[in-house]
Amino acid sequence: MEITTLSQTNWQTQLRALYVIARKDWKVFWRYPLNAVSSIFQPLIWVTPVYFMGKAFSTNGQALGFAGYTGSGDYMSYILIGTALSNFIMTVFWGMGYALKEDMDAGVLESNWLTPISRLHILVGRTLTSLLTTTITSTVMLIIGALLFGFKPTGNIIAAILTAIPMLIGLYGFGFAFAAIVLVMRDANTMVDVSSFLVQGLTGANFPVKSLPYWLIPISLMLPLTYGFDAVRGWILKTNTLLPLPVEVALLIGTMFLMLWFGSWFFYRVERNVRSRGTLGQH
Amino acid sequence: MQTTLSPQSLGRPGFASDLRALWAVVRREWTITMRYPSWIIAMFIWPLIFPMMYILTARALSGPDGSGLQVFLNTTGATEYIGYIVVGTTVWMWQNIVLWDVGFALRQEQMRGTLESNWLSPTWRFAYLLGHTGPQLVSMLLFVSITAFEFGVFFGVRLNGNPWMIGLMMLAAIPAIYGLGFAFASVVITMKEANAFVFLVRGLVMIFCGITFPVSLLPGWMQGIAKFMPQTYLIHGMRAAAFNNAGIPELAPDLIPILLFGLFWLALGYSLFVWMERRARTTGAIGQY
């Protein structure tokens, strides 16, 4: 008798497990359809105060001060691109760190952990549906943003998307390390919110990093995401970039491998420790 | 030998037992709060990082030579931009935290599967909601104090007004802010969805109440909506109290609507809770999620 179950671990079963996790999340997502509407409008709501604040800084509709930093006075396009990319950053944060906390609260983390699936695959699986829904909602957000605030991409969108891919893959490494911390701290909300905000602030999601206080600029320049935001905007809006675009892209590809290696190493190290202490099921 | 039992339990309804139930909820909430000490970090970090997003954007809009800043000060009538933004964002954070803490209180019980069993106990059910408010008010007081301290020390924001007037504005806003939280909690438990509602309500505050800009910059129809939101008056009044040395006569146009909104939201919050409680009993849907 041939037995075909997940317990026969090979790449097919791992893929099947990823699919099952993603399908479950897809069902849960559409079970609460208001979430979909909310994820389109939520980012737009966050940038609305910036839109009106920008008007308070503008003379005859021109944000000349902003152009001094970026080479473009179109601050709303600049911010909307940052917001769309931030949605993906949040997805990796929420998708992994918060998903672990959700499983802890629901009491299923320990049983999921007993399945013969790579723990990293469980984490990655929890982001697949979110990535798809984020792509859909961010596209709709940009379309609405174009209608409400005048989002005007003038450059090479394909190059920008290709640049964003290594940045996002690298983020998974960061997400693994972050998920490990959630396993130890057992409280995701505060950490997810605080670290997302800090990362977004330091990497210039909503403003050029050159406008940061001088003592924060070195920290910002050490974060690969800074170059990701900068390069994507450089491609789409032709803004002044921190480094030449090919250098920024090479930097993103290099740090992608580094972050993936470090994140998975750190996660497995912490996870082994949590298992040996028997605190996995606690929350 | 005859044994006389004298049960002193929550099962004997009365004012004292209601208070005891309320105290039990307050103590439980306090215990849960202490169980996750990361809130202490949040208490110090949030007052800084949330306003920072807008402050840094304002810096960027000012330009390298700061030329845009004078335009902002002329438009808003503010004396400095950091304090102006911090007041608006702090009010927003207050409402946001109340929506999550108080508004989410019953939903959390529902998700944990303890709401139905709590509902069966012969206690004053509003205590479950009210009990969340006590520790929340204490933590918010701490939160606002930390905000004032941090922006005073790190950014040199100086108050040019009477701190008692700021306190008065906040005190007047408590019924409106928490009344909205009570109403919200009942809606959430009925609709079985919290996140989207929090996003909607706090989004309205963010768009219409002028957290980083004067409401006068909004189009006319948006200004009309802003007039129906107590947070608009709270932000305006707190800015006047903190930076323009406004006294009670100057604050009255903000204080009166805030108090009226407070009455409205408390009444609506309690009515919705009573309605939800009755509906839950008749439909038996309280344990579903």
Describe this structure in words.
The complex is a heterodimer of chains A (283) and B (289). By secondary structure, chain A is mostly helical. Helices cover 76% and strands 0% of the residues of chain A. Chain B has 289 residues and is mostly helical. Chain B has one domain. Chain B is built from twelve helices and no strands. In chain B, helix 2 (38-62) packs antiparallel against helix 4 (81-101). The N and C termini of chain B lie far apart (52 Å). The relative contact order of chain B is 0.13. The model of chain B has no long low-confidence stretch (mean pLDDT 84). The interface between A and B is large, with 47 and 48 residues.
What fraction, in percent, of the residue positions of chain B are helical?
over 70%
Number of strands of chain B: 0
- Label the structural class of chain A: mainly alpha
Low-confidence stretches of chain B: none
Query: What is the makeup of the main sheet of chain A?
Result: none
Query: Which whole number gives the mean pLDDT of chain A?
Result: 85
Features:
heterodimer; A: 283 residues; mainly alpha; B: 289 residues; 12 helices
Care to give the gist of this entry?
The complex is a heterodimer of chains A (283) and B (289). Chain A has helices spanning 11-31, 34-56, 64-70, 75-106, 109-113, 119-149, 157-185, 189-203, 217-222, 224-237, 245-277.
Spell out the blueprint of helices and strands.
The complex is a heterodimer of chains A (283) and B (289).
Chain A: H1 11-31, H2 34-56, H3 64-70, H4 75-106, H5 109-113, H6 119-149, H7 157-185, H8 189-203, H9 217-222, H10 224-237, H11 245-277
Helix pairs in contact in A: 1-6, 2-4, 2-6, 4-6, 4-7, 4-8, 4-10, 7-10, 7-11, 10-11
Chain B: H1 15-35, H2 38-62, H3 67-76, H4 81-101, H5 105-112, H6 115-120, H7 126-155, H8 163-191, H9 195-208, H10 220-226, H11 230-243, H12 248-283
